[in-house]
Automatic annotation (TrEMBL):
Keyword Metal-binding set for record: yes
Domain C2H2-type, residue spans: 7-34, 35-62
Native species: Cepphus grylle (Black guillemot)
Encoding gene per record: Znf274
Pfam families to which the protein is assigned, alphabetical: zf-C2H2
UniProt name for this protein: ZN274 factor
Similarity section: Belongs to the krueppel C2H2-type zinc-finger protein family.
SMART domains: ZnF_C2H2 (SM00355)
GO cellular component, one term: nucleus
Keywords: Metal-binding, Nucleus, Repeat, Zinc, Zinc-finger
Subcellular location(s) of the protein: Nucleus
Length: 63
């Protein structure tokens, strides 16, 4: 809880307190989208965005 952010982005300088957050952030600077929907082919940089999108192919509703 020190507020320390030791992991810095080399592209924009934004800093993070967790290495995993930096890795996720770095994808915003890249053009690759490794998470692809097997139903329609749409691609995402972040796996959670694909997970949310996949629900559009079903009748599942979040509420």
């Amino acid at each position: 809880h020190t507020g320390e952010r030791p992991f810095g982005c080399q592209d924009c300088g934004r800093r993070f307190n967790h290495r995993s957050s930096l890795i996720t952030h770095r994808r915003t600077h890249a053009s690759d989208k490794p998470y692809r929907c097997p139903d329609c082919g749409k691609s995402y940089r972040i796996s959670n965005n694909l997970r949310r999108h996949r629900k559009t192919h079903t009748d599942e509703r979040p509420y």
